[in-house]
Amino acid sequence: MSTQKQKQTEESSEETAIETETSSHQQRRLDEKAARKADREAQRQAAEESLDDEETVKLKVFRFDPEVPEKEEPRFDTFVVPFHKGMTVLDALIYARDHYDSSLTFRHSCQQAICGSDALFVNGRQRLGCKTQLADLDGPVRIEPLPHAEVVKDLVVDMEHFYDQMEAVEPFFDADELPDDELEEQRQDRQNREKIKMSTRCIWCGACMSSCNIAAGDNEYLGPAAINKAYRFAMDEREGEDRKEERMRIVEQEHGVWRCQTQFSCTEVCPKDIPLTEHIQELKREAVKNNLKFW
After folding, report:
1. Which of 2, 57, 73, 104 is 20 to 30 A from 66 in CA distance terms?
2. What digits encode the pLDDT tens for the residues 56-76?
3. What is the CATH code of the structural domain delimited by 159-291?
4. Among the CATH numbers 3.10.20.30, 1.10.10.10, 3.40.50.720, 2.130.10.10, which is that of 56-156?
5. Is 120 helix (H, G, I), strand (E, B) or coil?
6. CB contact burial 243-255 (16+ within 10 A = b; e otherwise)
Protein backbone atom coordinates (compact mmCIF):
# COMPACT_ATOMS: atom_id res chain seq x y z
CA MET A 1 0.00 0.00 0.00
CA SER A 2 2.78 2.37 0.95
CA THR A 3 4.45 1.72 -2.41
CA GLN A 4 1.21 2.52 -4.27
CA LYS A 5 0.72 5.74 -2.30
CA GLN A 6 4.31 6.73 -2.96
CA LYS A 7 3.78 6.11 -6.70
CA GLN A 8 0.57 8.21 -6.71
CA THR A 9 2.38 10.98 -4.87
CA GLU A 10 5.19 10.95 -7.43
CA GLU A 11 2.72 11.03 -10.35
CA SER A 12 0.85 13.90 -8.73
CA SER A 13 4.10 15.79 -8.24
CA GLU A 14 5.04 15.26 -11.89
CA GLU A 15 1.65 16.53 -13.08
CA THR A 16 1.95 19.57 -10.82
CA ALA A 17 5.43 20.25 -12.13
CA ILE A 18 4.21 19.98 -15.76
CA GLU A 19 1.27 22.29 -15.07
CA THR A 20 3.58 24.76 -13.33
CA GLU A 21 6.04 24.66 -16.23
CA THR A 22 3.23 25.12 -18.80
CA SER A 23 1.74 27.99 -16.84
CA SER A 24 5.18 29.56 -16.48
CA HIS A 25 5.82 29.21 -20.22
CA GLN A 26 2.46 30.83 -21.08
CA GLN A 27 3.14 33.65 -18.65
CA ARG A 28 6.53 34.27 -20.24
CA ARG A 29 4.90 34.48 -23.65
CA LEU A 30 2.31 36.94 -22.35
CA ASP A 31 5.02 39.01 -20.68
CA GLU A 32 7.09 39.06 -23.87
CA LYS A 33 4.03 40.07 -25.90
CA ALA A 34 3.24 42.89 -23.45
CA ALA A 35 6.85 44.03 -23.58
CA ARG A 36 6.83 44.12 -27.39
CA LYS A 37 3.58 46.10 -27.35
CA ALA A 38 5.02 48.59 -24.86
CA ASP A 39 8.19 48.87 -26.96
CA ARG A 40 6.16 49.59 -30.12
CA GLU A 41 4.16 52.25 -28.30
CA ALA A 42 7.35 53.85 -26.98
CA GLN A 43 8.82 53.88 -30.49
CA ARG A 44 5.65 55.45 -31.85
CA GLN A 45 5.66 58.19 -29.22
CA ALA A 46 9.35 58.85 -29.80
CA ALA A 47 8.82 59.05 -33.56
CA GLU A 48 5.89 61.42 -33.17
CA GLU A 49 7.85 63.63 -30.77
CA SER A 50 10.72 63.81 -33.27
CA LEU A 51 8.25 65.20 -35.84
CA ASP A 52 7.24 68.18 -33.71
CA ASP A 53 9.36 70.58 -35.74
CA GLU A 54 8.46 69.07 -39.12
CA GLU A 55 5.42 69.50 -41.36
CA THR A 56 3.24 66.45 -40.79
CA VAL A 57 -0.02 64.90 -41.92
CA LYS A 58 -2.41 62.88 -39.79
CA LEU A 59 -3.83 59.60 -41.11
CA LYS A 60 -6.90 57.86 -39.71
CA VAL A 61 -6.54 54.30 -40.98
CA PHE A 62 -9.17 51.54 -40.82
CA ARG A 63 -7.97 48.47 -38.92
CA PHE A 64 -9.46 44.98 -38.76
CA ASP A 65 -7.96 41.54 -38.29
CA PRO A 66 -10.38 38.59 -37.88
CA GLU A 67 -7.54 36.25 -36.85
CA VAL A 68 -6.58 38.25 -33.76
CA PRO A 69 -9.26 38.29 -31.02
CA GLU A 70 -8.45 41.79 -29.76
CA LYS A 71 -8.53 43.16 -33.32
CA GLU A 72 -11.80 41.58 -34.51
CA GLU A 73 -13.72 44.77 -33.77
CA PRO A 74 -13.13 47.31 -36.59
CA ARG A 75 -11.51 50.56 -35.48
CA PHE A 76 -9.43 53.48 -36.74
CA ASP A 77 -5.80 54.02 -35.77
CA THR A 78 -4.18 57.44 -36.02
CA PHE A 79 -0.69 57.87 -37.49
CA VAL A 80 1.25 61.12 -37.79
CA VAL A 81 3.74 61.01 -40.66
CA PRO A 82 6.20 63.60 -42.03
CA PHE A 83 4.95 65.40 -45.12
CA HIS A 84 6.97 66.43 -48.15
CA LYS A 85 6.02 67.76 -51.54
CA GLY A 86 4.92 65.04 -53.95
CA MET A 87 4.03 62.60 -51.17
CA THR A 88 1.19 60.21 -51.98
CA VAL A 89 -1.27 58.35 -49.79
CA LEU A 90 0.65 55.16 -50.49
CA ASP A 91 3.91 56.82 -49.41
CA ALA A 92 2.28 57.79 -46.12
CA LEU A 93 0.93 54.28 -45.52
CA ILE A 94 4.33 52.74 -46.19
CA TYR A 95 5.91 55.17 -43.71
CA ALA A 96 3.29 54.32 -41.07
CA ARG A 97 3.84 50.61 -41.59
CA ASP A 98 7.64 50.81 -41.52
CA HIS A 99 7.94 53.20 -38.57
CA TYR A 100 4.89 52.58 -36.39
CA ASP A 101 3.11 49.27 -36.97
CA SER A 102 4.51 46.49 -39.14
CA SER A 103 1.17 44.66 -39.00
CA LEU A 104 -0.58 47.42 -41.01
CA THR A 105 -1.74 45.59 -44.13
CA PHE A 106 -2.48 46.96 -47.60
CA ARG A 107 -1.79 46.00 -51.21
CA HIS A 108 0.67 47.81 -53.45
CA SER A 109 3.05 46.92 -56.24
CA CYS A 110 4.25 49.14 -59.10
CA GLN A 111 3.58 52.56 -57.48
CA GLN A 112 3.02 53.93 -61.00
CA ALA A 113 -0.80 53.71 -61.31
CA ILE A 114 -0.53 50.71 -63.60
CA CYS A 115 -1.06 47.59 -61.48
CA GLY A 116 -4.31 48.73 -59.83
CA SER A 117 -3.53 46.90 -56.59
CA ASP A 118 -3.73 49.87 -54.21
CA ALA A 119 -7.28 51.11 -54.82
CA LEU A 120 -8.58 52.55 -51.53
CA PHE A 121 -11.44 54.62 -50.13
CA VAL A 122 -9.76 57.91 -49.24
CA ASN A 123 -11.74 60.80 -47.73
CA GLY A 124 -14.98 59.26 -48.99
CA ARG A 125 -13.90 58.52 -52.57
CA GLN A 126 -12.35 55.60 -54.42
CA ARG A 127 -8.76 56.47 -55.37
CA LEU A 128 -5.41 54.88 -56.19
CA GLY A 129 -3.09 55.31 -53.21
CA CYS A 130 -0.01 55.76 -55.41
CA LYS A 131 -1.68 58.40 -57.58
CA THR A 132 -3.38 60.49 -54.88
CA GLN A 133 -1.34 63.45 -53.63
CA LEU A 134 -1.65 64.20 -49.92
CA ALA A 135 -1.38 67.90 -50.75
CA ASP A 136 -4.74 67.65 -52.56
CA LEU A 137 -6.57 66.23 -49.52
CA ASP A 138 -8.07 67.82 -46.45
CA GLY A 139 -6.74 66.42 -43.19
CA PRO A 140 -6.95 64.30 -41.27
CA VAL A 141 -6.80 61.86 -44.19
CA ARG A 142 -9.27 59.03 -43.65
CA ILE A 143 -8.22 55.79 -45.37
CA GLU A 144 -10.56 52.81 -45.63
CA PRO A 145 -10.86 49.62 -47.73
CA LEU A 146 -13.02 49.68 -50.85
CA PRO A 147 -16.74 49.66 -49.97
CA HIS A 148 -19.08 46.86 -51.06
CA ALA A 149 -16.35 44.21 -50.73
CA GLU A 150 -15.48 41.77 -47.95
CA VAL A 151 -12.57 43.01 -45.86
CA VAL A 152 -9.82 40.41 -45.44
CA LYS A 153 -7.56 42.48 -43.18
CA ASP A 154 -7.11 46.20 -42.60
CA LEU A 155 -7.20 47.81 -46.09
CA VAL A 156 -7.20 44.54 -48.06
CA VAL A 157 -10.48 43.36 -49.60
CA ASP A 158 -11.41 40.10 -51.30
CA MET A 159 -11.28 40.72 -55.08
CA GLU A 160 -12.44 37.24 -56.14
CA HIS A 161 -15.97 38.33 -57.08
CA PHE A 162 -14.63 41.23 -59.14
CA TYR A 163 -12.28 38.92 -61.03
CA ASP A 164 -15.12 36.44 -61.62
CA GLN A 165 -17.22 39.20 -63.21
CA MET A 166 -14.30 40.22 -65.42
CA GLU A 167 -13.79 36.64 -66.55
CA ALA A 168 -17.52 36.28 -67.25
CA VAL A 169 -17.25 38.51 -70.35
CA GLU A 170 -14.41 36.33 -71.71
CA PRO A 171 -11.83 39.16 -71.85
CA PHE A 172 -9.64 37.93 -74.66
CA PHE A 173 -9.34 38.63 -78.36
CA ASP A 174 -10.92 36.08 -80.67
CA ALA A 175 -10.77 36.63 -84.43
CA ASP A 176 -12.57 34.47 -87.00
CA GLU A 177 -9.48 34.29 -89.15
CA LEU A 178 -5.77 34.73 -88.54
CA PRO A 179 -3.15 35.84 -91.12
CA ASP A 180 -1.54 32.99 -93.05
CA ASP A 181 1.89 34.13 -91.96
CA GLU A 182 2.28 33.81 -88.19
CA LEU A 183 4.60 36.81 -88.20
CA GLU A 184 2.03 39.02 -89.93
CA GLU A 185 0.13 41.38 -87.63
CA GLN A 186 -3.64 41.82 -87.60
CA ARG A 187 -4.09 45.32 -88.93
CA GLN A 188 -6.46 47.84 -87.41
CA ASP A 189 -7.28 51.24 -88.88
CA ARG A 190 -6.54 54.34 -86.82
CA GLN A 191 -10.17 55.35 -86.47
CA ASN A 192 -11.12 52.03 -84.88
CA ARG A 193 -8.06 52.16 -82.65
CA GLU A 194 -9.09 55.60 -81.39
CA LYS A 195 -12.59 54.30 -80.72
CA ILE A 196 -11.44 51.57 -78.33
CA LYS A 197 -8.24 53.22 -77.04
CA MET A 198 -9.63 54.44 -73.73
CA SER A 199 -11.29 51.11 -72.95
CA THR A 200 -7.91 49.35 -73.15
CA ARG A 201 -6.57 51.38 -70.23
CA CYS A 202 -8.44 49.45 -67.54
CA ILE A 203 -6.07 48.25 -64.78
CA TRP A 204 -8.58 46.02 -62.95
CA CYS A 205 -8.40 48.10 -59.75
CA GLY A 206 -12.09 47.63 -58.87
CA ALA A 207 -12.68 51.29 -58.00
CA CYS A 208 -15.60 51.60 -60.43
CA MET A 209 -17.28 48.44 -59.15
CA SER A 210 -16.92 49.68 -55.57
CA SER A 211 -18.56 53.02 -56.43
CA CYS A 212 -21.53 51.47 -58.29
CA ASN A 213 -24.77 51.41 -56.28
CA ILE A 214 -26.25 48.85 -58.66
CA ALA A 215 -23.35 46.45 -58.12
CA ALA A 216 -23.73 46.93 -54.36
CA GLY A 217 -27.35 45.75 -54.51
CA ASP A 218 -27.10 43.17 -57.31
CA ASN A 219 -24.34 40.64 -56.82
CA GLU A 220 -24.92 39.24 -60.32
CA TYR A 221 -24.53 42.55 -62.14
CA LEU A 222 -21.49 42.37 -64.41
CA GLY A 223 -20.37 45.83 -63.33
CA PRO A 224 -18.78 48.72 -65.24
CA ALA A 225 -15.27 47.23 -65.45
CA ALA A 226 -16.44 43.95 -66.97
CA ILE A 227 -18.80 45.68 -69.39
CA ASN A 228 -16.00 48.04 -70.44
CA LYS A 229 -13.81 45.02 -71.10
CA ALA A 230 -16.55 43.53 -73.27
CA TYR A 231 -16.78 46.86 -75.12
CA ARG A 232 -13.04 46.79 -75.79
CA PHE A 233 -13.37 43.54 -77.78
CA ALA A 234 -16.88 43.91 -79.21
CA MET A 235 -15.95 47.22 -80.82
CA ASP A 236 -12.62 45.99 -82.18
CA GLU A 237 -12.99 45.60 -85.95
CA ARG A 238 -10.60 42.65 -85.92
CA GLU A 239 -12.90 40.47 -83.87
CA GLY A 240 -15.10 38.08 -85.82
CA GLU A 241 -18.82 38.80 -86.29
CA ASP A 242 -19.92 35.51 -84.76
CA ARG A 243 -17.74 36.15 -81.72
CA LYS A 244 -19.09 39.68 -81.39
CA GLU A 245 -22.66 38.34 -81.36
CA GLU A 246 -21.75 35.89 -78.61
CA ARG A 247 -20.15 38.68 -76.58
CA MET A 248 -23.19 40.91 -77.05
CA ARG A 249 -25.44 38.12 -75.78
CA ILE A 250 -23.37 38.08 -72.58
CA VAL A 251 -23.75 41.82 -71.94
CA GLU A 252 -27.42 41.88 -73.00
CA GLN A 253 -28.44 39.50 -70.23
CA GLU A 254 -30.70 40.56 -67.35
CA HIS A 255 -27.72 41.48 -65.15
CA GLY A 256 -25.77 43.13 -67.95
CA VAL A 257 -25.90 46.60 -69.54
CA TRP A 258 -29.60 47.12 -68.83
CA ARG A 259 -29.01 47.21 -65.08
CA CYS A 260 -26.93 50.38 -65.43
CA GLN A 261 -28.87 53.47 -64.30
CA THR A 262 -26.42 56.00 -65.76
CA GLN A 263 -25.29 57.47 -62.44
CA PHE A 264 -21.76 58.20 -63.75
CA SER A 265 -20.19 57.24 -60.40
CA CYS A 266 -17.92 54.72 -62.14
CA THR A 267 -16.72 57.32 -64.64
CA GLU A 268 -16.05 59.84 -61.86
CA VAL A 269 -13.76 57.55 -59.84
CA CYS A 270 -11.91 55.77 -62.67
CA PRO A 271 -8.18 56.53 -62.15
CA LYS A 272 -7.52 56.09 -65.88
CA ASP A 273 -10.31 58.48 -66.99
CA ILE A 274 -12.15 55.81 -68.99
CA PRO A 275 -15.64 57.00 -70.05
CA LEU A 276 -17.24 53.87 -68.61
CA THR A 277 -20.84 55.13 -68.62
CA GLU A 278 -20.50 56.20 -72.25
CA HIS A 279 -19.25 52.74 -73.23
CA ILE A 280 -22.13 51.06 -71.42
CA GLN A 281 -24.65 53.29 -73.23
CA GLU A 282 -23.07 52.52 -76.60
CA LEU A 283 -23.38 48.80 -75.93
CA LYS A 284 -27.06 49.39 -75.10
CA ARG A 285 -27.51 51.04 -78.50
CA GLU A 286 -25.72 48.14 -80.20
CA ALA A 287 -28.01 45.69 -78.42
CA VAL A 288 -31.11 47.55 -79.60
CA LYS A 289 -29.86 47.66 -83.20
CA ASN A 290 -29.06 43.94 -83.15
CA ASN A 291 -32.58 43.12 -82.00
CA LEU A 292 -34.43 45.34 -84.48
CA LYS A 293 -36.39 43.42 -87.11
CA PHE A 294 -37.72 44.90 -90.33
CA TRP A 295 -40.53 43.17 -92.13
Report:
1. 57
2. 999 999 999 999 888 889 999
3. 1.10.1060.10
4. 3.10.20.30
5. strand
6. bbeebbebbbeeb
